[in-house]
Amino acid sequence: MLQEERGRLQSQDKLTGSTVKIAALHALSLQFLPAWLKKVERSFGTIGVSLFTDDFQDSIQRLVEGECDFLFTYYHPMVPVFLDPAKFPHVALGSDRLVLVTGVDVDGLTKMEWQKRLRQWYWRATGSLGYPRVQSETS
């Protein structure tokens, strides 16, 4: 009964055209959402938006508990999002590219170069291509 009443109130809120409640990850709320919302407003007119910026789990929890109308998050097939697609349909709005960025040490070597040199040193010292393994007391 409580679930039905919450659904009815949410439907009324949407029909009156008041505020759309959006949960989004921090990076998406800064980099993606402003331009996307401008595009939406050009098509549909001005809309009121209440934005909640949170981490992944808290954003999902907001959606599940009905605290927001939409969730903007990243997706990868190897990272489970425990949302029933029948209750929470989704659509891809874009794609992103992941890049690796690293700093340098005092000698100007990137951390990747430093790790490569460590492997080379270890290989020369031990004849092994890997890193040392920690032996458990039972083995």
Could you characterize the architecture of this molecule?
It is a single chain. The chain is α/β, with parallel strands linked by helices and 139 residues long. The chain has 2 domains: 2-72, D-Maltodextrin-Binding Protein, domain 2 (3-Layer(aba) Sandwich), CATH 3.40.190.10; 100-131, no CATH class. The protein contains 5 helices and 3 strands. The chain has helices spanning 2-15, 26-31, 33-44, 56-64, 111-126, and strands at residues 19-25, 48-54, 70-72. Strands 2-1-3 form a 3-stranded parallel β-sheet. It starts with a helix and ends in a 13-residue tail after the last helix. Mean pLDDT is 78; it is low at 132-136.
Descriptive labels:
139 residues, alpha/beta, D-Maltodextrin-Binding Protein, domain 2, 2 domains, three-stranded parallel sheet, 3 strands, 12% strand, elongated
What is the element layout, followed by pairings?
Elements: H1 2-15, E1 19-25, H2 26-31, H3 33-44, E2 48-54, H4 56-64, E3 70-72, H5 111-126
Parallel strand pairs: 1-2, 1-3
Spatial order of the strands in the main sheet?
2-1-3
Provide the gyration radius in Å.
24 Å
What is the top-level CATH class of the largest domain?
Answer: Alpha Beta
In terms of DSSP E residues, the strand content is 5-15%
Total beta strands:
3
CATH architectural label of the largest domain: 3-Layer(aba) Sandwich
Query: What is the straight-line distance between the termini?
Result: 58 Å
The major pleated sheet works out as:
3 strands, parallel
Query: Could you name the CATH homologous superfamily of the largest domain?
Result: Periplasmic binding protein-like II
Write the H/E string, N to C.
HEHHEHEH
Percent of residues in helices comes to 40-55%
